[in-house]
Design goal:
Strand 3 and strand 4 form a beta hairpin. 34% of the residues lie in helices and 7% in strands. It is mainly alpha-helical.
């Protein structure tokens, strides 16, 4: 009789629920804690994305566009999952400026929130034995000074509103806000936020700001972890509101029409008299 491989299913199995058929990995595997795999506050997309990031070698690119090209999820879902991991402490993103002037995003992945980035480091231990007499004694810590009361926050300035609202300006302002997520996925706004910010964008357009310039101004130099895009845009729309253009100078009024005393033709001049054709004849007759 040929020998059969031993079954990896446990001999004692539960009457219901999942049954684990485990094999021992000897290479190409990643250790993940149950605090991540069974996290109750993270979505499945965020948990799977954290597992993928922890399995990558150091130096791998994990930008939103790279992850979107790798997985079927949209940029908005990938960006939302990255924000979840940042909030839970599994990811930290900071923006740094290189000597060349280019701004790059540095990403640190933590396999356990709150752990040191270099888990292999060990604290230095002192050799056992009695303490020496000349060793410095710990200096007493000064009593903490009471913290001053926080200053009251100034009231937020109201959002600008157009002086002469127009349907065309409102529609264009609404479109600019909706399409900001194409410039950066962090600027994904809800319908409620778009409706609240539309009058402010319409005010910029009323002051003859070009639509492309409005989009560039709102989407430029975003912080690495934008948690409240609506509040961020409201601040920019208020603080960076351009002034109204000065009114154009009125065109000079033309001279009134006059009737030529010589040929009775109409011509423009400030006072009655002769037209230009009759003036040379008058000089010749003189």
């Amino acid at each position: 009789m040929p020998s059969h491989p031993a079954s990896r299913v446990p001999a004692t199995t539960p009457s219901s629920g999942v049954i684990h058929a485990n094999s021992r990995h000897t290479s190409h595997f990643t250790v993940v804690g149950n605090h991540l795999a069974q996290h109750r506050g993270l979505s499945l997309v965020a948990i799977g994305l954290a597992l993928h990031i922890q399995s990558l070698p150091a130096g791998s690119r994990i930008g939103i566009k790279c992850l979107t090209a790798r997985f079927p999820e949209s940029e908005a879902r990938i960006a939302s999952a990255l924000r979840e991991l940042e909030a839970a402490g599994y990811l930290k993103r900071t923006r740094e400026r290189l000597p060349s002037g280019r701004v790059v995003t540095r990403t640190v992945s933590y396999n356990k929130p709150g752990a040191a980035p270099h888990p292999g480091a060990r604290p230095v231990r002192r050799a056992p034995g009695p303490a020496r007499e000349h060793e410095a004694k710990p200096t007493p810590q000064p009593e903490p000074t009471p913290k001053p009361e926080p200053a009251p926050q100034p009231a937020r300035a109201p959002l600008p509103a157009p002086s002469r609202p127009s349907p065309d300006g409102t529609r264009l302002a609404h479109r600019i806000l909706v399409e900001l997520r194409r410039d950066d996925p962090q600027l994904l706004l809800s319908e409620r936020d778009v409706a609240r910010l539309t009058p402010a964008v319409a005010t910029w357009l009323e002051r003859e700001a070009p639509p492309d310039a409005v989009r560039r101004t709102l989407a430029a130099d975003l912080p690495p972890a934008l948690r409240n895009p609506a509040a961020f845009l409201a601040h920019r729309l208020t603080a960076l509101l351009p002034p109204s253009l000065p009114a154009a100078a009125p065109a000079p009024r033309p001279d009134p029409l006059q009737t030529c005393d010589g040929c009775e033709r109409a011509f423009r001049a400030p006072r009655p008299g002769l037209c230009r054709d009759c003036r040379p004849h008058l000089k010749e007759a003189a």
